[in-house]
Amino acid sequence: MSFHFGNGFRVRSLFHTTSVVRDMKPVADFHRRVFGTETITIPYAMNRYAHFTFIGDVPVEATSPNVAFATAKRTFLQLAGNHWSPAVFWVDDLPDAIHACDVRHGYRFTHLFDGRPVEGSPADRPEHAIQVYSNPFETGVDWGLYEMDQDHVNTQRTRQNADPFEYAGSYTPAPPRDDIVSVERHAQHAVVTDDPAKTLRFLVDALGGTVFAESENKVLGTRSTFLTLGDRPCTVEVAEPVGPGGAARDLERNGSIYHRLDFKVHDLDAAVRHLERENIGLEAKGDDFVVLDPKDTNGLRYGLFADLQAGDPRLS
Q1: Do 144 and 174 meet the contact criterion of CB atoms below 8 Å apart?
Q2: Contact yes or no for 109/202 (Cβ under 8 A)
Q3: Total domain count for the chain?
Q4: What is the pLDDT of residue 265?
Q5: Residue 130 belongs to domain spanning
Q6: Are both 163 and 14 inside the same structural domain?
Q7: Domain shared by 188 and 70, yes or no
């Protein structure tokens, strides 16, 4: 076993985004038609089916709970319908992260597999990985922390098990194409909440994120704080609704939640033309961004942006 224990906690990168959906095939078909991505099926485990793809520099998992078992993901699907669920960050020394978050900030975590509270180090970890989730009552939105046995990663060498830090560290945008939405990289991972301070305390004080911008988007009806965290920077938008729009509707229906996955595209006008060819409507349209209508995207919101948020460290 080769976990990064004893070296001190740090966030390396986004591990993956996850959607919980009733049927994975339409999601894979959408990603292929719109983003031109290839999807890999993940073996059935933990009472759920799943598949995996990369869109730009973002590892994206879709998971469908086995409805015969009363799992947290089945409950999530019943309450929220098809929706993005918590983002998961790849970390080193997860036991130290759990200890530091508890002792210094009072944050508690639950086990991935059965939702039990984590008491001390999660010594009863699975064979190759540890994954825990924060308590959304404490962190505003729930977040996942993950560590995998590096020896296992090095021997498996399959994309769904490969270290996304390694993949994204060598990532370069693919050349633009006009037959898909050509993604350059992620713009931000947008969460919506009615208590942004609670979410920001966790991401900044506990996980070490750095705030770099605040702005208001009148088209989306949101006031947002943008931050970056991780050795390979991951940008998160913490949005609070201040007017009508998709964010307000999502918050009213589901409470604080991972709201939207946003990408910077090579050519926004060309991307919109491709969406029109695929009969995908828009929920919102600004001068330099669009948000796809979730009715046409299997219930999952995606945003396409002409550029990164001003102040994003990746611009330097």
Answers
A1: no
A2: no
A3: 2
A4: 98
A5: 10-167
A6: yes
A7: no
CA torsion angle 288 294 297 302 (round to 10): 40
Bridge-based pairing of strands 183-192 and 234-241 is parallel
Q: How far is CA 191 from the centre of its chain?
A: 9
Residues 146 and 19 in one domain: yes
DSSP category for residue 117:
B
Closest CA to 233 of 307, 171, 158: 171
The Cα 316–Cα 176 span in angstroms is: 22
Last residue of a domain, one of 110, 134, 167: 167
CA distance 60 to 245: 25
pLDDT given for residue 172 in this prediction:
79
Query: Do the strands 282-285 and 210-217 form a parallel or antiparallel pair, or are they unpaired?
Result: unpaired
pTM score of the predicted model: 0.91
pLDDT of residue 117: 81
Same domain, yes or no: 89 and 236: no
Please give the order of strands across the beta sheet that includes 144-148.
40-45, 48-55, 58-65, 10-20, 83-92, 144-148, 129-134, 109-111
